[in-house]
Write a structure and sequence with these properties.
elongated; 6 strands; 47 helices; mainly alpha
Amino acid sequence: MISASRNAYQKEFDELLADAWLHGGVLVLHGGPGTGKTTLLREFRERALAADALCLTAVGFRNESCLPFTVVEQLGYCPGAPRPVVSALERLVAHGAPRDPRDHGHVARLRELTAALGETAHRRRLVLLVDDLHYTDNASRDCLLHLARRACASGIVMVLTYGRVLHEGSVERSEFETVPGCRLVEASPLSPGEVRLLLEAEWGAEAAERLHESCHRVSGGSPALALALIQDHRPAEAARTGSAEMTVGNGFRGAYLSRLSNHPALLSCVRAAALLDRNASTERVARLLARDTEAVAGELAELAGAGLLLTGGRFRHPAARAAVLEGPGGTERARLRLRAAQLLRADGAPPTTVAEHLVAAGEVPDETGVAVLLRAAWQWLAEGRADAASRCLRLADRAGLDPDRREHVTLGLVSALWCVNPAAAEPEIARLMAAVRAGTAEERTLHGLIDWLLWFGRSEEATEAIARLRKVYDPDAPHGGYRLTATRAMVAQLRPDALADLPVPERQADDAEVAGMSQGTAASPVATASSITTASPVTTASPIITVTADATGTGPEQPAPPSVDHAGAPGGQAELVQFGLELSRAGTMLQLPAPFPEWQLLWEREITALLGLAQHGHLTMADQLGRGLLARFPAGSPARHALLRGIHAWTAVQRGDMRTAVAHASGALDELPPHSWGVAIGSPLSSLVIGHTAMGQLDEAARYLELPVPEAMSRSVFGLFHLVGRGYHALAAGRPYAALSDFTACAPLAERWRPPSRHLFDWRTGAAEAFLALGERDRARDLAERQLDEIGTAVCAARGDALRTLAATGPVAARRLLLDEAVHVLRACDSRLSLARVLSDLSEVHLDAGRTERARALWREAQRLARQAGARTPHWTTRTPPAAEVARPPAPARAPAPAAAALDERLLSEAEWRVAALASEGKSNRQIARHLYITVSTVEQHLTRVYRKLSVRRRAELSQLIRPVASETGPLTD
C-alpha cells in the first residue's frame, strides 16, 4: 500500500496518465469519510482534460445500490462518449444482470464493451473515474472489476474511490490486489502544513500562522471540516478580532454529519461514542451496539484516521458530539440511553454517570433506577450542581413510589430548588404540608419544612410543623440530635421566638458524626474547640481598661487572637461554630462531606457555620470560610451562592471592608431576586446600606432602604441587621432622632431573644452615638458601659466601637486610656474602619497634648485604613456638639451670593480650599487648625484671602458656595 501526501496523489495519477499510450492502469483511492477523495477525483479529471484525455465519470449512490448497472450506465451519458461504447453499454444494460455469471451472452457483452473502450483508448487517452465504489450495485461492480483486470492491456486508465479503508485481509482489498498494475493509495487527512496553506490562500500568512493550529486541532485535517471552519470563521476574521481560535458554527456541525450520513455503520459507532462520552471505550461501544468488538475497533480506528475522532472514541470538539447527539428520534435515543445506563451500572460506574443517561432518556425509572437517581442527586447537590440534582429528583418523582419514599424525594426536591430559587419549591411544600396535616410526615421531613416556612414568614404553617415535630421527635433515633441542633440553629436566625416551641436536645448524641464532619478530624467538637481557641484572652483589670501599654501597635507585643465563649449558643450552635472553625482551617481546598445523607443539612450547615463564626467574633475565619465556600460553588447553585455571598458581605461589614461588602451584597441580589430571599433579605440590604453609607453614598444607601421587605423580617435576626443599618444611615444623614428610634427598636427584640451575637448588632453603641449627636452625654455613657458589660472580655469590633464611644463621653484626661485599649482590640480583630475612627480620635488626643508628630502619624494611618476600607469620609463621628447647637432651629435659607453661579475652585490655592471646605462644614478656627496641623493664625490668614477672592463676608455665605462644589468633587482634606 502506498501512503502519500496530497502532492503525491497527483504524482501517482500523472504517472498513470503519462503511461497510458503504452499501457493503462488502475488507481484505487480508499480512506475514511471526509479525507478528500471526491475532491481529488475532481482534480484528476481537470488534469486529464488538460492533457486532452477523454474522461468518463460515474458515481455510486447508496439508495441505488440495488439497481443493476446503475453505475456503468452513467459512463454512456458523459459528453464525448464514443458511439461504440454507448451502444455496448446499452446492450449490456438492456439484458439486465445475469442470473449466472458464466452466462455466455453476458460474457460476450462484457468483452464487446472492453473492446470498444480499448479501441477508444488507442485513438485518445481514456480515463474512467468512478466515485464511491462501495455503493456500486453488484452488476456494475463485476463489470468494473472485469475492465480493471484488462485495463493495462487495453490502455485504459481507471481511478476508483472507496469510502472506507480497505484493511489488510478484507475481501474488498483482495479483489483489487489481484488486478494487474493496480495501485492502492490510502487518502490521509491534511497535515498542519497543508492546513496552513489552505488558510493562507484564504486570509494571508499572518492569519494562517495564528489559526492553523486551532483549525487542524478541531478538523483533524479533514479537508471538508477545515473548509467548513473557514466558512464559519469568515465573519470573525472580517471583524479583525485577532482570535487564535477558529469559530465553530453550524457549517462545521453540518459538515461533520454529512461526512457520516452515507456510512451507517460508522455513524452508529460515532453516536455510541457520543452517548458514552468520557466513558467510551471500544468494548463499551461494541456492547452498546450489540456488535463484534473487533469490527467496532476497526471502525473507530478508521474514524480516528480520518480525523473525525481522537483515539479511544473521544471527540475533537464538543460541537461535533452535540451535532451527533441531535441525530436519532426520541424512541431510538431513549433506547440507546437506557441501554447505556444499564451497561455503565453493570460496570460499576458512578451513580452520577448512570443518572445522566436515565435523565436524558426521560423514561419512568424502575426501583433500581430510582435508587441510582437519589444517590446521584445527593452527590450533585453536595457538589453544588443543584440543577442536575433537580432533574434527577423530578424523574424519580414520576416513578411509582410508596408514600415514605415519595416524601423523601419531595424533601430532596425542596432542598435542590432552595439552592436554585427557594420560591420555586412552593408546589413541593404544599405536598409536604398535606403530609403534616394527614399526620404522616416523618421527622426528617419536618426539619427542612420548618426552615422553609420560617424563611418565607409563614408562621402559622410553621407552628403546625413544629407541633408535629414535637410528637414524632425521638432523641434516641440515629442522628436525631444533630438534625434538631441544625434546625434550632436556623430557627435562631429566622424566628428566634419559635425556639421555645421546638424540642430541646438532651445532649448531642452523635459526637462521632459531628467530629467527622471535617476531613481528618477525629476528636470531638469540644476537644477540638479547646485546642483551637485556647489562646489567652486580653488580660483585664476592669470591664473597661484592659491594657496598660500603648496599644497602637508599635510595641513588640502582638494582639491575642479572638477567644469567644460558645457556651451560650442556643440549640447546640457551639458544635456548628466548631464545624465552621474546622472548615476554615482547610482554606480553599475544603471539603464538605456530610455526616449522613440528609437533604436538609447540605445547605443549612454551611449557612449556620458561617453565621456562627461571624456572630461569635471569628471574623477572619468566617472570611476565610466564606471565600472557600464561594469558590467551591461558583455557578450550579445560584441561590446557595447568593446566600453565602450575602453572609460574606455581612462579615465584611463587621471587618470594616466596605468595598467587599458592597460588591458581595449587590452580587447576591443580582443572583437571587428579592422575593426569593424571604426574611433573609435583611442581610444583603443592611450590608448595602451600611457599606454605601460608610462610602459617603447616602443617596444610594437610601435607595436600598426604600425596597419593600417582608413583615416577618422584623421578627428575625435579619430584621435587627436592617434596623441597625437604617439607624447608621440616619445618623450619617444628620437625623439623630430617627437613628435613635431605629437603634432603640432593637432593644426589646435582642433582649428577648438574646442571640449569641446580640453584641454584634451594635445597637447600643449606635444609640450612644445618636445621644452624643443630641448632646446627651450621660445617656450615651450609660449605653456604652452597658454594651461593654454585655460583651465582657471578647475581642471583637463591637467592643472597640463601644470603647471609642465611651471615650467621647468622658473627660479628656481619660480618653487616651480608653482609645489605646480600643486600638489594641481592633487590631486584634482586624476591623479597618472601626480602627480608623479610633485612630482619628486618638490623634486629636495627642494633638491636644502637644504631641504633634504622634498625632500626625496616627491621623495618616487612620486615613490609609479608611481608604482601604472604602470609606470616603468618617460620617459617624463622636464629636459632642453644644446643647444649644442641637436645640437651635435651622436658620432661614439665604439667597446665594452673587458669585455663587460663577464659583471656580481654581481661584483658591490648595491650602485655601482645604481651609474653606472645613469652614463650610461649621468647624471653628481651632478645630480646622487641629485637623490640618497648622496654627490658628494661619487659618485666619487663609480665610481672609478666601473671603476676599470669593467676595463673601461671613461663613454662611461661604458654606453656600463651597459645600455644593465639595459634595461633587469629594473632600480635599487628607
